[in-house]
């Protein structure tokens, strides 16, 4: 019994370490990250998470839409993800989703721009009760 309980507690501890960590005190975010965010989005109210890879993700509203951005510890913005309407996905992406997931509704769509200016698109659908992100390039070709 003790062994089973110990294994269960260890599994729970490892699982919690594998997930991103919400940051309650913004002052624990490096000043380089906070300053870079404020310079780019001066009026936005942000909530932070520490990602598994050591980067910082900030979630906020941008022109009334949900958005998030990822910064490394030095304050370099690695990507910006902005909510878009399903109709704003590239036509090829919409056709792919209609053909391959005809009974699935898009829960959320987003445009992602990385630090090199490369734009990709994301469509979130539910498969077997789990949220799944399907990624497309700027022309709507399937990436992942």
In a few lines, what is going on in this structure?
The chain is of the alpha+beta class and 144 residues long. An 8-stranded antiparallel beta sheet has the order 1-2-3-4-5-6-7-8, covered by helices on one side. It contains 3 helices and 8 strands.
Give the SSE order as H and E letters. Answer: HEHEEEEHEEE
CATH class categorisation: Alpha Beta
Principal-axis shape equals: elongated
Query: Helical region count?
Result: 3
Structural class: alpha+beta
**How are the strands of the largest sheet arranged?**
1-2-3-4-5-6-7-8
- Overall tally of structural domains: 1
Report the C-alpha radius of gyration, rounded.
18 Å
Percent in helix: 25-40%
CATH architecture: Roll
> How is the CATH topology named?
Nuclear Transport Factor 2, Chain: A
E-strand count = 8
Beta-strand proportion: 35-45%
Q: Measure the end-to-end span.
A: 43 Å
| Low-confidence sequence ranges | 1-18
Please give the largest β-sheet: 8 strands, antiparallel
What is the residue-averaged pLDDT?
86
